[in-house]
Structure formats: structure tokens, C-alpha cells
Amino acid sequence: MAIAAIDKLVMQLSKLPGVGQKTAQRYAYFVLGMDKEQTREMAQALLDAAQNVHPCPICGMYTDQQTCEICTDKRRTDELICVVSDPKDVIAMEKTREFMGKYHVLFGSLSPMDGIGPNEIRINSLLDRCNNGGIKEVILATDSDAKGDVTASYIAKLLKPLGITATRIARGIPIGGNLEYIDEVTLLKALEGRREM
Amino acid sequence: MAIAAIDKLVMQLSKLPGVGQKTAQRYAYFVLGMDKEQTREMAQALLDAAQNVHPCPICGMYTDQQTCEICTDKRRTDELICVVSDPKDVIAMEKTREFMGKYHVLFGSLSPMDGIGPNEIRINSLLDRCNNGGIKEVILATDSDAKGDVTASYIAKLLKPLGITATRIARGIPIGGNLEYIDEVTLLKALEGRREM
User: Fold this and answer.
1) Model pTM?
2) CB-based contacts of A10: which residues, under 8 Å, 6+ apart?
3) Burial bucket for residue B109 (CB in 10 Å: 0-12, 13-18, 19+)
4) Helices (H), B101-183
5) Separation CA A27–CA A18 (nearest Å)
6) Contact A63/B8, CB-based, under 8 Å?
7) Fold match between domain B4-42 and domain B74-197
8) Would an 8 Å CB–CB cutoff place B11 in contact with chain A?
9) CB-side exposure of A122: number of CA atoms within 13 Å?
10) CATH number belonging to the domain at A74-197, selected among 3.30.70.940, 3.50.50.60, 3.40.1360.10, 3.40.50.1950
11) 8-state DSSP, A168
12) Fewest Cβ atoms nearer than 10 Å: which of A7, A101, A113, A126?
């Protein structure tokens, strides 16, 4: 009952994040039930993305232009850079519609245990941008977990001698958060970060 | 920040069953992070499946041959047909390694509310097979829900005048099932289906 083309499709789809054998099989049989034209469109979308989309050489965000829309946007200040771990984080940040600086995508976080040191993520290109001058503040918006914190601390230390202010996004109670369900570490951070009203 | 190739990929991936906008975006950004060669392999797997795999003209199970391996297997009896709703169900059934008859895939269940009547699923081709003679028993292994039951009853009624025995797979407590967690309808069916030991 092994059909090579189906097995191959299941194997390929199981590469997607969080997709195991069972889900990949579900996807594969769904694909087999689609019109051939629809399947071709799906395959073409994969090929087009691989062909046309690449990281912006300045900030690392994905773009289909030479440099990305944000880096070339004249209305945005060059004095402020928001550092994130992942291209998806740029999208999340942009949804606030408030940040009017530029970005820098690291493509990962420092994680010595996994062999990810400073040279494995885009820290050098961030330093290059900082050394070129004109940058006043770098907001470290890496994830609020151990790896994200280590990455933020590491970069902050490198920025200090350059006279650039390094800031970390605030940790605290999420909006709508119910105090009794918030873990104690978050509560502690929220207490530490309290402001006069 | 809209990148056409990414948006298109997200849209295409969100067609997969159970995949919403958020998951499709996660998949799309994962794909963007893959090697181009890997993405090409994934696209090719989709194209190959659409190109080479089709329903077996006899039973409806997917195959890359003219007729499927099961239909052409001489060791399997032609006297027994197991009717299932979906190609995936054939795989589930084959895992028992016990069933040595043939299959018939309906590609759906009767569902008048959704406009799915007898002509929308492969009931006529099942009757054709039955009319050709040689079939003694048809096992109705459609799902154990309302649609599956209706479909099974409908087919059983059609088979009666042909002198073919129609059977329904047993409903009861699943192996390892803990009585206190079993719903009352299943318990009732298990009671009704009790056997002398």
C-alpha cells in the first residue's frame, strides 16, 4: 500500500513546524483531493516565495525588493533600531502602528547549549550599523525568555562603549491579564517596573 | 509591509485543513527560512502527487498504478468488500493486517443538509461492482456518527434485493477504554452488542 508520491509528500509536509506524521498525512490526503490546478498554485506559491523573497541586506526582514520597505521609508527615523529575533516579530511590532524607527532581525537568539554564539546570529551586522553612526537608541525586543534575555544583555554590553543607549522592552502584566493567573516571575518584573501615576 | 509572494504563500497554506491565518503564517515564514533547494523539493512533492496519484477506478483508493495494489492483489478475496468514507480509512483498516477483502471508498458520507446525496458519493460504482456478481458480504465501515450511520443504512437497503449480506462494524468500548469515561450512547451500543463468552 506504499505509494511513493504520497509518502514523499507526507515526508515533505512533516518538515513544517509542529507538523507530525499524522498531521502531514492529513494534509497530504487533503492535497490529493484538491483540483490539480489548485495543487499547482500551492506549489507555485512555494517556488515564488523561494525565488522572490530574501532577507533585506540591511535589517534582515524578508523583502521582494533590493532593500525592504521599512529600511527605505524616509518617514522613519534612523536614530532608533528595534532588535528582534525573528522576521515574524517585525510583523507583530508593526501591528502596534506606533514604532517609527528601523528594525534589525537577528534570526535567532544566543544559545551556547545549541552551539549558537554571536557569529551564528546577525549581531555583527547590527554592530556595523551602529558603528556607521547616527543611531541613538537600540531597543532590545528579543523574547522574554532566558535566551532572549541573554541575547539582549550581550548586545547591550557591546553597545555601551559606542555611546548608544540600549533599552529593553518592558516586562509586566499583559493587558487584560488577571493577576491571580499571572506567574510569579512576571509579577515580580511588573513590581520592579512599577511607575508613578 | 505587504509582500505579495509571502501573502500568496500564507493564503495557499491556509487552505490546508485546520490551518488558520496564524498557523499558515508560521508555516510560510518557516518555508522562507528553508534552503531554496528544500522548498523546491516540497513544491515538487506537491506536483508529483497531483501528477501521479489518482483514485483507483475500481475501489477509489489513491494509487500511482492503473488500478491499486489492493484491487490487483490475487491473495485477497473478491467476495468481501469493506466500504469506507475516506481514503485515509483504508490505511487505518489496513493497519489491522487482518482484513483480506477489497475496499470501496465513497469519498464522503450522505448529508442532505450539505447537498450531498447518493449521486455525490461513489455509491453507484459500488452497486455496479455488486451487480457484477461474486460479492457475498459488504462491510459498512463508515464513521460511527450520524452521517456515517445514515450512509450505511442507505447502502444496506440497496444491497438487500441483490442478496448480498450487509454488515456494520461493531460499536462498543474501545480497547483500553475506561467505563466511567465512555459516553452513554457508546455504552448503550456496547450493551446491545454483547456476546456470550
Assistant:
1) 0.81
2) A21, A24, A25, A28
3) buried
4) 123-131, 146-159
5) 13
6) no
7) no
8) yes
9) 23
10) 3.40.1360.10
11) E
12) A113
Q: Where are the domains of chain B?
A: 4-42, 74-197
C-alpha dihedral sign at A177, A178, A181, A182: positive
Cα–Cα–Cα angle for A118, A119, A123, nearest 5°?
60
Dist. CA B45–CA B42, nearest whole Å: 5
| Three cell numbers written together for A61 | 526582514
CB contact under 8 A, A91 and B53: no
Asked if A66 has any chain B CB less than 8 Å from its own CB, the reply is no
Q: What is the pLDDT of residues A140-175, one digit of tens each?
A: 999 988 899 999 999 999 999 999 999 998 888 888
CA distances from B50 to A36, B55, B62, B89 (A): 6, 11, 11, 20
Q: Are B82 and B99 in contact (CB under 8 A)?
A: yes
Q: Is A5 an 8 Å CB contact of chain B?
A: yes
The string of pLDDT tens digits covering residues B38-47 is: 999 999 999 9
pLDDT tens-digit map of A67-119: 999 999 999 999 999 999 999 999 888 888 888 999 999 999 999 999 999 99
